[in-house]
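Take a careful look at the sequence and tokenised backbone pasted below. I need to know what the token row says about the fold.
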Amino acid sequence: MNPRTLVLVTAALLLSAFVAATALYHRAQADAATRRAIDHGDRLIRPHAPILGDVTAPVTIVEFFDPACATCQAFHEPLKALVAAHPGKLKLVLRYAPFQIGAEHIVALLEAARRQDKFWPVLDVLMETQDDWKPLHEAELPRVWKHLDGLELDLDRLRRDMSDPEIAARIQQDEEDANRLRIDTTPTFYVNGRPLPGFGFGVLQKTVEAALATLE
């Protein structure tokens, strides 16, 4: 074997070993996430969590999300469309994981809006205008208020409710659950109590379709 061929064969072997090691690592990570979901399944859904869709739907997506997360923003409309496409069969449960700087204030605003039955309209507006109120990768609450015009919110009450200890307790509970499940990125999804086998909306859609198929 000449030196050039030897180099090429060695490089190919090293690349193959790297690919195999990477696959094993991701498989181990996925298995660990599944074990945590099983061990701490009671932490996936809390009674206070907002739900989109029929609460009795047999297939459940749990999303740990951050309203200041750009990827969560990108998933927002496709997720709503996915739930709407399967009425009575699929629901979305939202949990908070406010990892971005300042995101905890946006979450408090969402929970306060919920007391006025405006959670989903406010969330829609926040997702549409995220680029404005998070101009430098940090959520800036003062830039949000102008976007709430026209939603018929009592803004004085909204501001008061944002400081309510009950709302702070809900956010803390979600953060504790995310920490116990070792969630460190958003969005993180579970379908019927199990983490996704990969990442991306296509993976989520296929996992949901597989769960729906078991109902037939």
